[in-house]
């Protein structure tokens, strides 16, 4: 019992120190993802309280946040210097893609919102 | 009339009731029908026409002419409530006053003649001097007519006959001038168109004129050719206008209108009077075709013909002329329409003049009598009818023991009994009529029984006698049958098949069911199997009246006979919709208003309370605030934001463009539609592209430079 908590504590500390080494840009993107997902949570709690009418509004709200989160994760992957896969992709290009995709997503969301 | 309806089906009640009523009515009302299209003046018309003439305080009926019309009309109608004494007394006073025209004298003289006033000589004494002057002055047909007609009437009252001769010679020469070359006459020498009325008037007085001339042995009369007048008179009848159904009349011409109108009635009257006057004195008969005379008679007997007093006079005077018309007297022939075997009726034929007086100087022959519908030879042919003095009718013993019931077509012929000096009578051709022979039908062997459905054994049976009121009660349930038997015989003893034989069951709630009783060799029979009829009777148990209905056109005693009272026990109606008993048709129930429909509309969804929604809206914004706080905590900054020059402008432009797209999305959510948004987004996107591309490539270049440096 004691070892598991001690192990858990050790794990968390190791993660924290490793995370501190990440570049600020990536931390900003992570923060953005956390923001999006927390908004989703609030909406789901609301829906569970009052019911899902109107359903389209609920879906568009949820999908907007999740979509933004997904696009942010894609941006993080492309911007991360340690990621060998996107070595040749300039980060500005990735950002431009991110902006465009967000705009398209939000157009669809706005249409579905009603 | 359906006599072959199939099955014991329920028949509509309304038309049955109507039919039965119709038959009963036809049998009960023994109306005579006119069979040659000519009906004498009806009582309704007589009354209407007499009503046109109302006397003034002094006994006169308006002007002199109107008074004459009224007196003559009332004389024809045989009404004697005229104040003849008063009128006669005032006539002398009227005549003494100076006159402008001979017309007044003419009317006065005519009134005196109709009323047979005793003051004839006094009137004549006063009139004669002015008359001579008037005769010399007369130039038009009408003036001549008045003067000469007056002379003709008063010649018997005055002894100064010799002085007429001189006056008359002047008349005849004027007459000659007015006679046209083709047999037609004119009003005056100058008028060009001839008219039937002028022609009639001419003949009306021409012969009395000639008769006077003969009486006075006037030499100038020989100039007038009687033959010429006669041919001309016959030519008159060529002017007849025809209408449908054989009605003929004389049409007036323009000249007639100027002499006082009167129309077709006056023209017809004038021609009839004229031709009658001529025919009365001619040695040989005036040959006018009988169809023409008949057609004129039809015209004069048109119901409601006269609309005022003058027209009434013309109609009545014309009819009185026709009663003794020399060429031919039209007669109306009417036969009885229904002959009853049980009362052994005779066929009666009434032959009357147009005013309703019976005619006895004709021979009526029954040419043939056929039974309608059968191809058999005629029942009677060439039989003479006998005149019965008391009733004024011609009778014939039509019925015999072997006469069949039904409709017969008769053809009659009416001929004059030829004798010198008598008028010849015409019926306008052979007379066709229909008669129906009816009789009382015997009803016998009426039996009503209740049988068991399975075994056929009768549980109850009764023999009923027609005419006796026996209150019989039967009872039955759905496992039994009702049996009705009856026999109908005609007077000759053979079985009779009437057009309708029905059995009706009437429930105490007035619901009725009708069944056809079929005939067979043994008589009429009906079996009602209640097991099969339970549903049709709508499961209504209770007391039913059993009613027998028998009717036919030739049956004198068609009847509706309540045979018995039936207590019917039927099983109860099954669960589910109870069939409502079909009560007599209630019109209002069908077309009245229906119950109001309460519509249930889609209820809107329940929305959460506004406060809750607002709380969560603020909760949604919390993560955003948390994001900015986190950014600050991480040390994120915008120090590298280019501020000067083109990169700065590009950066601002890029951010501005993206912001504008987001604003567009916001407007799209609020009120725009997709197409407008897409159009604008496309334009704004194009606007975002250059600055975005520039700034990002600038940043990429600058970071690449930093790496290499």
From TrEMBL, chain A:
Membership in a protein family: Belongs to the DAD/OST2 family.
Record membrane topology: Multi-pass membrane protein
Q: How does it assemble?
A: Component of the oligosaccharyltransferase (OST) complex.
**Transmembrane portions of the chain:** 31-49, 55-75, 95-113
Q: What is the protein's name according to its record?
A: Dolichyl-diphosphooligosaccharide--protein glycosyltransferase subunit DAD1
Which keywords, in A-to-Z order, does the entry hold?
Apoptosis, Endoplasmic reticulum, Membrane, Transmembrane, Transmembrane helix
Record's function text: Subunit of the oligosaccharyl transferase (OST) complex that catalyzes the initial transfer of a defined glycan (Glc(3)Man(9)GlcNAc(2) in eukaryotes) from the lipid carrier dolichol-pyrophosphate to an asparagine residue within an Asn-X-Ser/Thr consensus motif in nascent polypeptide chains, the first step in protein N-glycosylation. N-glycosylation occurs cotranslationally and the complex associates with the Sec61 complex at the channel-forming translocon complex that mediates protein translocation across the endoplasmic reticulum (ER). All subunits are required for a maximal enzyme activity.
Q: Does the keyword Ribonucleoprotein apply?
A: no
Q: Where in the cell is it found?
A: Endoplasmic reticulum membrane
What organism does the record attribute this protein to? Answer: Sphagnum troendelagicum
Which pathway is this protein assigned to?
Protein modification; protein glycosylation
Query: Does the record bear DNA repair in its keywords?
Result: no
TrEMBL record, chain B:
Q: Name one Pfam family in it.
A: Ribophorin_II_3rd
Its annotated pathway?
Protein modification; protein glycosylation
Instruction: Outline the extent of the Ribophorin II N-terminal domain.
Output: 41-323
Primary subcellular site in the record, as a coarse category: endoplasmic reticulum
Does Endoplasmic reticulum count among this protein's keywords? yes
Limits of the Ribophorin II C-terminal domain? 601-700
Membrane topology note: Multi-pass membrane protein
**Keyword line:** Endoplasmic reticulum, Membrane, Signal, Transmembrane, Transmembrane helix
Residue ranges crossing the lipid bilayer per the database entry: 615-636, 648-669, 681-700
- Where does the Ribophorin II second domain start and stop, copy by copy? 335-437
As given in the record, the signal peptide range reads 1-34
The chain positions of domain Ribophorin II third read: 445-568
Subcellular locations according to the entry: Endoplasmic reticulum membrane
Family membership noted in the UniProt record: Belongs to the SWP1 family.
Complex and partners: Component of the oligosaccharyltransferase (OST) complex.
Role, per record: Subunit of the oligosaccharyl transferase (OST) complex that catalyzes the initial transfer of a defined glycan (Glc(3)Man(9)GlcNAc(2) in eukaryotes) from the lipid carrier dolichol-pyrophosphate to an asparagine residue within an Asn-X-Ser/Thr consensus motif in nascent polypeptide chains, the first step in protein N-glycosylation. N-glycosylation occurs cotranslationally and the complex associates with the Sec61 complex at the channel-forming translocon complex that mediates protein translocation across the endoplasmic reticulum (ER). All subunits are required for a maximal enzyme activity.
What name appears for this protein in its UniProt entry?
A: Dolichyl-diphosphooligosaccharide--protein glycosyltransferase subunit 2
Q: Which species does this protein come from?
A: Sphagnum jensenii
């Amino acid at each position: 019992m004691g070892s598991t908590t001690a192990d858990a504590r050790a794990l968390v500390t190791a993660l924290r120190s490793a995370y501190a080494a990440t570049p600020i840009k990536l931390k900003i993107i992570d923060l953005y993802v956390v923001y999006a997902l927390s908004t989703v949570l609030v909406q789901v709690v609301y829906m569970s309280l009052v019911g899902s009418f109107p359903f389209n509004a609920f879906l568009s709200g949820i999908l907007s946040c999740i979509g933004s989160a997904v696009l942010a994760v894609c941006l993080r992957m492309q911007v991360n210097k340690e990621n060998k896969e996107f070595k040749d992709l300039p980060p500005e290009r990735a950002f431009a893609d991110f902006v465009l995709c967000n705009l398209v997503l939000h157009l669809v969301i706005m249409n579905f919102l009603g | 009339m359906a006599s072959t309806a199939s099955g014991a089906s329920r028949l509509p009640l309304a038309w049955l009731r109507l039919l039965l009523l119709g038959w009963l009515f036809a049998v009960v009302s023994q109306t005579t029908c006119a069979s040659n299209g000519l009906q004498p003046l009806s009582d309704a018309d007589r009354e209407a026409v007499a009503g046109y003439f109302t006397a003034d305080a002094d006994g006169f009926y308006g002007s002199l002419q109107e008074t004459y019309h009224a007196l003559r009309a009332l004389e024809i109608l045989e009404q004697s409530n005229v104040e003849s004494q008063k009128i006669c007394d005032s006539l002398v006073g009227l005549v003494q006053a100076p006159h402008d025209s001979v017309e007044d004298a003419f009317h006065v003289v005519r009134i005196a003649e109709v009323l047979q006033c005793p003051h004839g000589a006094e009137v004549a004494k006063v009139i004669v001097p002015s008359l001579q002057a008037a005769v010399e002055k007369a130039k038009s047909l009408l003036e001549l007519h008045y003067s000469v007609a007056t002379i003709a009437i008063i010649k018997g009252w005055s002894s100064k006959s010799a002085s007429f001769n001189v006056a008359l010679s002047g008349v005849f020469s004027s007459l000659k001038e007015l006679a046209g070359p083709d047999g037609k006459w004119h009003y005056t020498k100058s008028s060009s168109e001839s008219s039937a009325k002028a022609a009639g008037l001419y003949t009306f007085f021409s012969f009395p004129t000639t008769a006077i001339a003969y009486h006075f042995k006037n030499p100038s009369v020989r100039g007038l050719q009687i033959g010429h007048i006669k041919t001309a008179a016959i030519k008159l009848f060529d002017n007849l206008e025809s209408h449908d159904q054989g009605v003929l009349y004389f049409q007036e011409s323009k000249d007639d209108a100027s002499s006082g109108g009167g129309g077709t009635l006056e023209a017809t009257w004038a021609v009839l009077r004229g031709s009658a006057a001529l025919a009365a004195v001619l040695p040989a008969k005036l040959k006018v075709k009988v169809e023409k005379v008949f057609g004129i008679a039809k015209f004069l007997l048109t119901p409601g013909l006269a609309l005022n007093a003058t027209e009434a006079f013309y109609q009545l005077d014309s009819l009185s002329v026709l009663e003794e018309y020399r060429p031919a007297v039209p007669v109306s022939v009417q036969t009885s329409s229904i002959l009853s075997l049980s009362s052994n009726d005779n066929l009666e034929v009434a032959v009357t003049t147009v005013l309703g007086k019976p005619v006895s100087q004709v021979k009526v022959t029954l040419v043939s009598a056929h039974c309608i519908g059968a191809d058999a030879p005629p029942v009677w042919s060439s039989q003479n009818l006998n005149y019965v003095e008391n009733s004024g009718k011609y009778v014939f013993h039509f019925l015999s023991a072997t006469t069949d019931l039904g409709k017969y077509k008769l053809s009659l012929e009416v001929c004059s009994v030829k004798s010198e000096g008598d008028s010849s009578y015409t019926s306008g051709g052979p007379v066709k009529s229909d008669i129906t022979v009816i009789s009382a039908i015997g009803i016998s062997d009426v039996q009503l029984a209740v049988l068991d459905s399975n075994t056929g054994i009768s549980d109850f049976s009764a023999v009923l006698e027609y005419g006796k009121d026996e209150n019989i009660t039967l009872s039955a349930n759905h496992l039994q049958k009702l049996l009705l038997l009856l026999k109908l015989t005609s007077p000759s003893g053979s079985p009779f098949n009437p057009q309708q034989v029905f059995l009706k069951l009437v429930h105490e709630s007035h619901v009725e069911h009708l069944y056809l009783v079929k005939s067979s060799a043994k008589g009429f029979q009906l079996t009602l199997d209640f097991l099969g009829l339970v549903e049709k009777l709508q499961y209504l148990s209770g007391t039913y009246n059993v009613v027998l209905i028998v009717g036919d056109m030739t049956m004198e005693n068609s009847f509706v006979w309540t045979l018995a009272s039936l207590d019917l026990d039927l099983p109860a109606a099954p669960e589910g919709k109870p069939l409502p008993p079909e009560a007599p048709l209630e019109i209002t129930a069908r077309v009245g208003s229906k119950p109001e429909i309460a519509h249930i509309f889609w209820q809107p969804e329940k929305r959460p309370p506004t406060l809750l929604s607002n709380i969560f809206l603020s909760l949604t914004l919390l993560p955003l605030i948390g994001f900015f706080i986190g950014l600050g905590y991480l040390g994120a900054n915008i120090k590298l934001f280019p501020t000067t020059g083109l990169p700065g402008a590009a950066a601002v432009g890029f951010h501005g463009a993206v912001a504008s797209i987001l604003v567009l999305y916001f407007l799209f959510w609020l009120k725009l539609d997709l197409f407008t948004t897409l159009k604008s987004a496309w334009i704004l996107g194009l606007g975002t592209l250059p600055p975005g591309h520039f700034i990002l490539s600038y940043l990429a270049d600058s970071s690449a430079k930093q790496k290499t440096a």
